[in-house]
Each structure stands twice: as structure tokens, then as C-alpha cells.
Amino acid sequence: MRAQFVLSEIGVGLRRNLTMTFAVVVSVALSLALFGGSLLMSDQVNSMKGYWYDKVNVSIFLCNKSDAESDPNCAKGAVTSDQKKQILGDLDKMSTVVEKVSYESADQAYKHYKEQFGDSPLASSLTPDQMQESYRIKLVDPEKYQVIATAFDGRAGVQSVQDQKGILDNLFELLNLMNRAALALMLLMLIVALLLIVNTVRVSAFSRRRETGIMRLVGASGFYIQAPFIAEAAVAGLIGGGVACFFLVVGRYFTIDHGMTLSKKLNLINFIGWDAVLTKLPLILATSLLMPALAAFFALRKYLKV
Known about the structure:
Helix content: 55-70%
Number of helices: 11
């Protein structure tokens, strides 16, 4: 097979169907940009899970005098020194589950509250004796929260056992939902791209039916006739894949790295690095090349009689 002939036929096909080729490039670019963005979003969520789950604490809040009057869990009164010693002793015995225990007094809790919510109208009405003492527990495995809850929830002197992981789970559930929505949109765009590729190949094959008929008469093989159409779709898809890679690189740079962007405004988030982006680019380019080529191949089997 002469490569020059195939290349010339690719150029002819792209020029004849310039509008549809442009539509294929745009739809492939958008669908694969969403695909790459979804993969990066999944990596980001997993990175955030590993980062934040390693830092979450389980808090055992102790009853104070105010709780004893209003909270059913503290009906037996405010926590006593003996009860605190008992709780701390039991935590020390759970070394396989508990990595570290920190104590926060009512005064410390009040100070932290003022630092975080000092502008709140409620802050001016609070006093240190209304704040709760607590034990902040760092777990060896964040998934073992239930062990602590079972051991201390409902015990005398304990107002509640709270797991910060539950708050993070709600956040990650929202992020995963957004990621699934992006994947659904990507699939829709991918279907549109495939339909455009099939229609482009059909139009191109129809417009060159005389040439293909002559090639059949002179004994050209089926693959020799099909190759220019398949290559034409692959080239259009590869251009779209290149545009998608450009979108991902530019998007990563301007949203995270450039100027006063996310990495500086949200410095508590451990953003994924460039290595995560660069590892996705070959996959996107390979998909952009193979997907249109395969779509064109199967379309030609039905619409081009060779």
C-alpha cells in the first residue's frame, strides 16, 4: 500500500467534510476533556481522603453543669474526676485502636471557639463554664470509630462521642456525586462524538463511491479501500485528543498553580500534582486515536460494500 495515496485521500476527505470534521474534533475534545477531568477528580478525592482521614479525630465530650440540667445523656450530673480518670485509663488500654489521646479543658475549648467564631452573635453570650471538656482521640485506623463509640457512648459523665470522619464522608459523597455527573455528561458527549464519526464516514464514503467502485473493479483489497476513511477518522480524533490534553494542562495550571488560585486560597487541601495530569495524557491520546478508528471500521463494514 502506498502511503502517499493514503495520506492524499485523508487530506481530500478532511477538506470535503470540513464542517463535520470540525464537529468531530470538538465533540471528541470535550468528551475526552471531561473523561480526563473525571479521572483527575477521582484522584483528587482519593488524595484528600488519604490526607484528611489520617488527621481526623474522635471526640469524647464530657458532661458539664449546663448539660446536667438539659441533656438526658447527662442526667447523672457533670463528669467527675474519677470518671475522667476511668475514661482515660480505658483509652490507654486500647492501644491497638488508639494512637494518641489529647485532653481539651473547658477554658481551651472556649478559647478555640472564640478564635474560630468570634464574630458570631452567639459568641458574646457564651462563658467558659458552658463549654465542654473533651478527649480528642487519634485512631490507628479511622474506620475503627465504632469501637470507641461502643465503649464510651452512654457512659456516666459522657455527653456524646463524635466522629469527624462522618463530616468528611458527607463532603466526599458530594464530590463523588459531582464526579459521577461529569462521567455521565462525558458518556453523552462520547455518544454524540461516535455518531458524528459514523455519519462523517458515511458521507465521505458516499461522496467517493465512484472512486471506491473503480478500485474494486481493478482488484483493490477491502483494507486498501477502507484505510483512508479509517485514518481520516483517526486523525480527526487525534486532533480532538490533543485539544483535550491542552484543556487539562491549561486548566490545571490556571486553577491551581497560577497566581492567587486554589493552591493558595485553599492551602488546607492537598492538591494532586502534575504527575497525575501527565500520566492521564497518553491514555487520552490513545483513546482519541483508537475510538474513532474503530467506529469508522465498523461503520464501513455496513455502509461501504467492499
